[in-house]
């Protein structure tokens, strides 16, 4: 996750997009080489094919990592909403109990003054 932490998901996907463009350029280069009137140069075709296959593998790995990362994404993981609401509920409960205790004290005081 260290390397992923350095860039955003959008930046990583943009890099994948650049690799896809490069793959298409390589495929076009091979097609041009095969259509050459002098015939294809074996070493050029082989180098393009090797680079093509490596880029395809890199693209697959990058996309797999992005899918895995998206599945693990928890947007509310660091949200404090739940604890804040629980705190507010507890506060309201304490207020209610205090008002009931005040009412009980008033009733006791009223009883003692009446006797």
UniProtKB/TrEMBL annotation:
Compartment(s): Nucleus
Short name of any one Pfam family annotated for the protein: Med11
InterPro entries linked: Mediator_Med11
Record-level GO cellular component terms: mediator complex
GO BP term (any one): regulation of transcription by RNA polymerase II
Sorted UniProt keywords: Activator, Nucleus, Transcription, Transcription regulation
Recorded GO MF terms: transcription coregulator activity
Key word Kinase present: no
Keyword Isomerase on entry: no
Chief site of localization: nucleus
Described function: Component of the Mediator complex, a coactivator involved in the regulated transcription of nearly all RNA polymerase II-dependent genes. Mediator functions as a bridge to convey information from gene-specific regulatory proteins to the basal RNA polymerase II transcription machinery. Mediator is recruited to promoters by direct interactions with regulatory proteins and serves as a scaffold for the assembly of a functional pre-initiation complex with RNA polymerase II and the general transcription factors.
Description of how the protein assembles with itself and partners: Component of the Mediator complex.
Family per record: Belongs to the Mediator complex subunit 11 family.
Protein name: Mediator of RNA polymerase II transcription subunit 11
Lineage: Eukaryota, Viridiplantae, Streptophyta, Embryophyta, Tracheophyta
Primary gene name: MED11
């Amino acid at each position: 996750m260290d390397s992923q932490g350095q860039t955003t998901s959008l930046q990583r996907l943009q890099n994948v997009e650049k690799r896809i463009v490069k793959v298409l350029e390589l495929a076009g280069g091979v097609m041009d080489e095969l259509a050459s009137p002098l015939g294809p140069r074996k070493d050029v075709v082989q180098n393009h094919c090797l680079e093509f296959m490596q880029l395809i593998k890199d693209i697959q790995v990058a996309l797999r990592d992005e899918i895995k990362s998206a599945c693990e994404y928890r947007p509310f993981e660091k949200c404090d909403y739940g604890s804040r609401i629980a705190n507010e509920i507890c506060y309201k409960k304490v207020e209610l109990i205090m008002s009931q205790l005040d009412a009980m004290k008033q009733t006791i005081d009223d009883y003692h003054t009446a006797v």
